[in-house]
Design goal:
Elements: H1 3-14, E1 18-21, E2 27-29, H2 30-46, E3 54-58, H3 63-75, E4 78-81, H4 88-98, E5 102-105, E6 123-126, E7 160-165, E8 175-179, H5 180-191, E9 203-205, H6 213-216, H7 219-225, E10 228-230, H8 237-247, E11 251-255, H9 256-264, E12 278-282, H10 288-298, E13 301-306, E14 316-317, H11 324-329, E15 333-334, E16 339-343, E17 356-361, H12 373-379, E18 380-381, E19 384-393, E20 399-404, E21 409-411, E22 414-416, H13 418-425, E23 431-441, E24 445-454, H14 463-470, E25 482-485, H15 499-507
Parallel strand pairs: 1-10, 3-4, 3-5, 4-7, 5-6, 9-10, 11-12, 12-13, 24-25
Antiparallel strand pairs: 1-2, 7-8, 13-14, 14-15, 16-17, 17-19, 18-19, 19-20, 21-22, 23-24
Helix pairs in contact: 1-2, 1-3, 1-7, 2-3, 5-7, 8-9, 9-10
Length: about 500
Amino acid sequence: MTLASVVPEAARRFGELTAFVAPGGWRLTYAELDRLADEVAAGLAARGLDEGDLLALVLPSTPDYVVAYAAAAKLGAITAGINPRYTPAERAAVLQVAQPRVVISTKALAEGIADGSITSDPIVEFVQLANQSDEILCELRDPSLSSPPPLTDPADPERLVAVVFTSGTTGTPKGAMFGNRELAAIAAVDLGPRAGVWGGGGPTIANTQFAHVGFMTKLPWYLQAGHTTYILERWRAKEVLRLVHEHRMPTIGGVATQVALMLRDPDFDRYDFSCVKAIIMGGALSPPALVHEARERFGAAYSIRYSSTESGGVGTATAYDADDDEALFTVGRPRGETELEIRDDDDQPLPVGETGEICIRSPYMFRGYWRDPDTTAETLRNGWLHTGDLGYVDERGLLHIAGRRKEMYIRGGYNVYPIEVESVLASHPGVSDVAVVPRPDPVMGEIGVAVVVPKDPTNPPSLESLRAHAADRLATYKLPEALRIVSELPLTAMHKIDRRLLAELEARHRPT
């Protein structure tokens, strides 16, 4: 089924069941989602949004966003979410790439939109966020029309539905394109044995911005499962713990940084988490000590998911019943119909145990970058997605992440992959969080700097203790040669470590 058809079918099946709970506590039912999406679709059509046009949403993660996304799908238009955490300059850069026909934004996020920085002349509609369901996008709705204009081919698998922008850690974000075919495949793999079955979902939390691939490509299966999704105004560990406890949520999702913050919350042990059966963490390799602690304290299985925006949020996963070697030091095996190869610089497959670029082929991955055929050709070659990530597959078929090709640095002629070093340093008893970045060096070219968030700020680990801790598992040239203690690691808008900012800070370092 397509997103355009899932919305009315979910309304028919689930009716007054709550689909989304807004930060203020008010609720949007499945029936209301379908009705309001029809009214917004009619209003957008009257403003000139047509099949194949791009709608840009510069909105916070609220029910308003979901209704607008569903409305665009019913029109056959394409939705691009613009992360509200972007700076005005970043918003302007993304919109310059997107060239949307219509932009929906709040006035609070207007900077970077209405300043003439977009080459095209889009229709810009400013909306007031709702405080109850009937207020949703009231400026755009046309209740006089019972339904939007009919699609020429509602079930067309090739119809584009979403453009999901990458996190932009290596430059201006790129828009990954997904259509009905990819979204249907993603729904099938995520629903697993329940693919094709309606219902069975329960309460869950939206852990990412709605502009993220984790929402944009997965909304159809959330609706098919009949989930009730709680939206947070801002992610806070204390609020997540309370919601999981009160609503007896069986699954906790997010990124490793988030589960680390939950475990650090002083009220953690006051809650009953016997309801939690699985912890699913993506975004990056989870530190072994964190996986071990989370499994123990939540009393739940822990699955690490490796994926990317381009892969549609589907890649590899560690098994729920994985042994320690798999659960603590790998990102598991391919999910569903995903094929995995490790390739060398000549694009040839490498044997087991050798490090190279991680390449993926699957029915879930993107079909190219929006308005960027050159970068598409570099990234998609002969049907394979070249991720830019480095890793190797062991004799058990488990994928080990070494880092990103562009994050690798060279110390004295030797390649060093930061994620490999971080996975070892993260198990130091005094380390709460860590990133390794290069610093220019007149002798070695580059050296590694350990940027550490200590567990005890009054007694941070020393560089000597970090090196001693890692000496048995890392070659000498991989060990950090400088240390920077910080209270927290900077994050990008997509909740990933902002390595570019950290590297820029080190590049400005002057030896004393």
